[in-house]
């Protein structure tokens, strides 16, 4: 399936979600449990499909980091399956391992998908631009790993852990904002028009 077709299906799914929600709200009734689950499932698949598209783009490029795109697709799929199972009541026992697993897959789906966007055409970036992108992806991956370790060990952390997480989060946000700005400042190849 082409990227364009996937986006068309995704837009259609989001429109159907909106239509169902509008009908449920307009009819004066409340959204029942089944309708809520349908909406939440469709929204989950839509978001994770969007994230997976970033990974697919890098994976199909054949670039050095294309393996990261494949990992992104895998994490998005695993997150979608685990979240959908939870939405529809699989593992409704008091055991929260299902939620932990879904959170772990979701964190890595987000980190690897964003990394796929950052590292696409990385060899065409200036040294500063490439460094900002590597550092941003590194912060996202380290944050996902810290949260995964805390979830697995049921570790609540202490003040120093909070500081490390906050510093990494700030650096991640900074890199997310700075990376495209650095791209704007990079020189263009001869003959390429300025936007």
What does this entry look like structurally?
This protein is 78% helix and 0% strand. Helix 1 packs antiparallel against helix 2 and helix 3 packs antiparallel against helix 4. It is globular and about 55 Å long. With 195 residues, it is mostly helical. It has 6 helices and no strands. The mean pLDDT is 85. The longest helix is centred in the N-terminal third of the chain and has 29 residues.
Give the arrangement of secondary structure elements.
Layout: H1 3-26, H2 33-61, H3 66-87, H4 97-119, H5 127-153, H6 159-185
Helix pairs in contact: 1-2, 2-3, 2-4, 3-4, 4-5, 5-6
Give me some keywords for this one.
single chain, 195 residues, mainly alpha, 6 helices
- In which range does the helix fraction lie? over 70%
Outline: globular
**CA distance, first residue to last residue:** 31 Å
Number of strands: 0
Radius of gyration: 20 Å
Beta-strand share of residues? under 5%
Sheet/helix structural class: mainly alpha
Mean pLDDT: 85
Number of helices: 6
The sequence of SSEs as H and E is: HHHHHH
- Low-pLDDT stretches are none
How would you sum up the major sheet? Answer: none
Structurally, the number of domains stands at: 1
Assembly state here? single chain
